[in-house]
Specification:
Phosphorylase Kinase, domain 1, 3 domains, 7-stranded antiparallel beta sheet, 5-stranded antiparallel beta sheet
Length: 611
């Protein structure tokens, strides 16, 4: 749009350009008679004359919004287009806020005191709640759209107005600022909870001085859909209650957020008054007594047996390559790698990534075998891969569906539409469990027919070794164990304080290890949920967990860029692998239990000595 400084719209002369965006330009205007200063917003795209009625109707509703924390719309109108007699340019006349925006007052990188953040949220949430109650969604909440009034009160600005056609409305809904957009808005299904999410992103940014995701607009949108929000407590001292309030407002699913933006503001304010909890010990076991101490103190005979076992273990250890020795780094993917799995015969590895491909390669030398490109409709790439027990097929999941195909050449693909995310084969290879929109869906592997849907806690899943039960975890902070034959819930484990990101059964089926956003892995009895130990070796969220084939050790990968191997009996750390340059998203043991393949956001899969 051409510079309009000096032109007159109705009773206002355009004095200076204040800002511009994809949909509109904002000018400083002055009333030609009274001299009063206003802000005038002109849409970049003219509308047809028969669309003026729609614009005026929505502008009238906007002008009816009267709240102390919302910029007032004083009047509105249309200006004839100089290029086309059938088009007009809509404009809004609003209060002028001379002190600028919150972004100007607090440039990017600025950390604010919690008390200031709480006060800001109180005012912004009040404005949003009022708008939501009137049937309005803002869809572009960000510091640039929060103005400062004469008394430093916050003023929410830049509510959207009509764009004419339905397609233009949809475009506006998806055209917010990627750094602050909620996942459902990216998908084109915004709601009031989308504004709550954007406000929570602002809180995150104000508290730690940076946004949770960085990169290009496309990269940020992709991370928003696939990656967990980095922990606040890793970046600054913060009350767990405050962090929990922020993370709840940033939940991936709108239904998991607060019921309203007002409740988010209230929860944050309440949490800000609670003192931080003391640091917990590195390792917690039931009863508070270290299991190793108990074993060594039970008598001389047991002591001698343990001593002999230790000596033999050292001799065996001396004959193996050093732990952490890297055998190869596979670099076939473009971008992050989310899933990795060894073939049951140990000869090949399959890896899936954000580039939308699954690549099959030799485990011995990393030589590429073939690339499966069936996930052409995926928006955010492949999340998970799993080999069938007979070594003949591979199941892979993206954000929209799960596909099963020949492991030899990628042929004979079968697609389970509407089910993407975690995927797991039954031990007999006859069924597949995957994440669906309504829970966990079980399929008949050969035919592709739906067996039943378990409408419970779905996000990550694992099949018991005997195939009789399935464990699932997710956003509800619980792990549910249910009967694989009929989908009935057997019992629920409530030990986690945050989102469950991974779950795995021990090879003997007696225990389950589940990892969460709170940096812990919990090991518990698969029959009754009794806690055995909590592993606290990671400095950030734990994304993946896997038992060694002999059940003696557990490997876990996390957002602290490490993969860690530890004793499944007492939780003592055995080895920490630090070869990755970014978050470790998946770990997989070789069938012989000697090596681990770890996948990462650094676009590599690395194979290294595990024991």
């Amino acid at each position: 749009m051409a510079d309009r400084v000096g032109q007159q719209l109705g009773n206002y002369q355009l004095v200076a350009l204040l800002g511009q965006g994809g949909f509109a330009e904002v000018y400083l205007g002055q009333h030609v008679h009274s001299g009063a200063k206003v802000a005038i917003k002109l849409l970049n795209k003219p509308i047809m004359e028969d669309e003026v009625g729609t614009f005026q109707k929505e502008a009238h509703i906007l002008a009816s919004l009267r709240h102390r924390n919302i910029v007032r719309v004083l009047e509105f109108g249309v200006e004839a287009s100089t290029n086309n007699p059938y088009l007009v340019i809509p404009y809004l006349v609003m209060d002028y806020a001379p002190k600028g925006t919150l972004r100007k007052r607090h440039p990017g990188g600025t950390r604010l005191p919690l008390s200031t953040v709480v006060e800001y949220v109180r005012q912004i949430a009040a404005a949003l709640q009022y708008a939501h109650d009137q049937g309005f969604i803002h869809l572009d909440v960000k510091p640039e759209n929060i103005l400062l009034g004469e008394n430093d009160e916050l003023l929410l600005s830049d509510f959207g107005i009509a764009r004419g056609s339905a397609s233009e409305h949809a475009a506006y809904h998806a055209a917010g600022t990627p750094d602050y957009m909620a996942p459902e808005q990216i998908e084109g299904n915004p709601g009031p909870a989308s504004d709550q999410y954007a406000l929570a992103i602002m809180v995150y940014e104000w508290l730690c001085g940076q946004l949770p995701f960085k990169g290009s607009d496309v990269s940020v949108r992709r991370q928003r859909m696939r990656t967990l929000i980095p922990s606040l407590s890793d970046q600054l001292p913060i009350s767990p209650d405050v962090e929990q309030a922020v993370l709840k407002a940033l939940a991936r699913m709108p239904s998991q957020r607060f019921d309203s933006v007002h409740k988010f503001a209230a929860a944050l304010e309440q949490a800000s008054t609670i003192s931080p909890l003391p640091e917990q010990s590195e390792l917690t076991t039931p009863g508070g007594i270290a299991r190793r101490v108990v074993l060594l103190g039970t008598g001389s005979v047991v002591g001698l047996v343990l001593l002999g076992t230790t000596i033999w273990g050292e001799i065996k250890r001396a004959s193996l390559p050093p732990q952490g020795k890297r055998y190869l780094t596979y670099r076939g993917h473009i971008g992050d790698v989310e899933g990795v799995a060894w073939s049951p015969d140990g000869k090949r590895i399959a890896s899936g990534g954000g580039d939308g491909t699954v690549q099959v390669w030799n485990a011995a030398d990393g030589k590429h075998v073939f690339t499966y490109r069936g996930h052409v409709d995926s928006t955010y790439g492949v999340y998970a891969v799993a080999w069938s027990p007979d070594n003949k097929h591979i199941a892979s999941s993206d954000d929209k569906n799960t596909q099963v195909w020949d492991a030899a050449d990628g042929g004979n693909a079968l697609t389970y539409s509407g089910n993407g995310g975690a995927v797991a084969w039954s031990p007999d290879g006859k069924r597949i469990a995957a994440i669906g929109g309504s829970g966990i869906v079980m399929w008949d592997a050969p035919a592709g027919g739906n067996v039943f849907t378990y409408r419970g806690n779905g996000g990550v899943i694992a099949w018991s070794p005997d195939g009789k039960r399935i464990a699932s975890g997710g956003y509800y902070r619980i792990v549910q164990v249910w009967d694989a034959a009929n989908g009935k819930n057997v019992f629920t484990y409530y030990g986690h304080a945050n989102i469950v990101l991974a779950v795995a059964w021990s090879p003997d089926g007696q225990r389950i290890a589940s990892a969460d956003f709170d940096r812990t892995v919990q090991v518990w009895d698969a029959a009754n949920g009794e806690n055995v130990l909590i592993y606290r070796g990671h400095a950030n969220s734990v994304k993946s967990v896997a038992w060694s084939p002999d059940g003696q050790r557990i490997a876990s990968g996390g957002f602290d860029k490490t993969a860690q191997v530890w004793d499944a009996a007492d939780g003592s750390n055995v080895f920490t692998y630090r070869g990755h340059a970014n978050n470790v998203t998946a770990v997989s043991w070789s069938p012989d239990g000697q090596r681990i393949a770890s996948a990462s956001f650094d676009a590599t899969v690395q194979v290294w000595q595990a024991v």
